[in-house]
Amino acid sequence: MVETITMTPQELSRYEIMKRLLNKEINGTEASKQLGLSVRQTKNIKAKVLRLGPKGITHQNRGRPSNRKLSEERIETIERVVRAKYPDFGPTFASEKLLAIEQIKINKETLRQLMTRWGLWQAKSRKRNKEYRQWRARKERFGEMEQFDGSYFKWLEGRGPECCLLASIDDARGIITQVQFVRWEGVKSAFSFWKRYVETKGKPMSIYLDRHSTYKKNQKSVFDDPSCLTQFERAMTDLTVKVIHARSPQAKGRIERLFETLQDRLVKEMRLAGIETLEEADKFANEVFIPMFNQRFAVKAAKTGNLHRPLTRTESKGLEQIFSIHNKRVVGNDFTVRFAGVWYQLDKQQPTLVRPKDKIRVEERLDGTIYFSLNDKLLSFAALPERPQKIKIPLIALSRSKPAWRPPANHPWRRQLFFGKRQRSQVSTPSPVIPPEAL
After folding, report:
1. What is the DSSP string of 145-200?
2. What is the pTM of this model?
3. Residue 180 Cα distances to 189, 244, 366, angstroms
4. How many CB atoms lie within 10 A of CB 321?
């Protein structure tokens, strides 16, 4: 009997790294860097994988409540005491008084989270010193961090359309890893850039970029909400790539200085080469200019090794799905879905059960095609020429096939329906009136 082991994308990525470690493709230090763990933790995971196989990657306490979790009754007791006696106390002071007077022991940080949830404490914003900036050392290995940004400039000097240059530079070696000319710095452009990147070079450990609306939601209501992700952050989370947002242009100074150099050198090189279209510019920059630039300006990394991770089999198959714009839509009562001003009719037969009011995922791929999915199953549908008329459909759900079973004539359900109608007809029919003289 084959045992099925469910893994998260992070655990699956860890297992691929451990397989490379066991096959001696990388050493323990490089594996610990890719895992983001210490060497000791990496050795422990390696021992578990050798003993348990893939199951050693997953957490042994999965599905079990934590031993240190506070019960709801204890949380209610603490809330009642804090609201009654210490509503205006800070978390640290309140935890000390709870232990000294109430004999209730609770960590100050746990109490800080609880008081924030209860509305008794508001987290203070950290002070920002705009004058002092500390120098940050380069990352140690190639692929540990990629700085990424876009720059609008007259790259073709009027010989072609106005465009934006997307570029990434490795933080450890200072080499240009990839550039791409696009019309604007939008979601699809960023997806196209990084799809080609991970297909050719693998997944970097992290990406360092600014707070452009394509990469970061800047509304105050969701600014620090980790669950509110942009399409870019969601795709990188699926690939287990860490996204780091810079708080100032100086923080990602390497990519900012790169664009200053490109606006001088690359523009003149393309002028000499007679580049006039975006396709020619993209090919020239990646095949001609980047090798020359890296040969001259590259630096030696502090440590050898490449921390780019290859795509897993699941990621390779679902790359088109990962780098697509995801939206949610609700299925109508007539099994229609509206998206981008177009109405779509779902087919009667579907790979999974579809009911009215179900929320399906709409995937807008890079080539412009639309896909509907529910429970990780692609749904079949057809576009309608106009808005459908409101009609009553007897179907209550869409399934894989039509039910072949029909209740027989003597089925209790049919008998109940038949006799119910017969009794109602008998009650509704008036009995004949007999005249007195006929008696």
Report:
1. -EEEEEEEE-TTTTSS--EEEEEEEETTT--EEEEEEESS--HHHHHHHHHHHHHH
2. 0.63
3. 9, 21, 15
4. 18
pLDDT at 432: 52
Q: In 10 A of CB 331, how many CB atoms?
A: 21
Return the amino acid letter for 348.
K
Residues of 166-186 as b/e, b for ≥16 C-beta within 10 angstroms?
bbbbbbbbbbbbbbbbbeebb
Task: For residue 157, give the amino acid letter.
Answer: E
| Digit-coded pLDDT (tens) for 54-97 | 888 887 777 677 777 888 899 999 999 999 888 888 788 789 88
Residues in contact with 94: Cβ distance below 8 Å, sequence separation at least 6, in sequence order:
82, 86, 111, 115
* Helix, strand or coil, per DSSP, at residue 300: coil
Q: How far is residue 128 from each of residues 122, 133, 221, measured CA to CA in Å?
A: 18, 10, 21
Backbone angles phi, psi at 176, to 5 degrees: -75, 120
Q: Which helix H or strand E contains 310, and what residues bound it?
A: none
pLDDT at residue 426, rounded to an integer: 52
Pairing of strands 359-364, 370-374: antiparallel
CB contact at 8 A, 308 and 203: yes
Q: Among 143, 140, 171, which residue's Cα sits nearest to residue 252? A: 171
DSSP state of 252: G
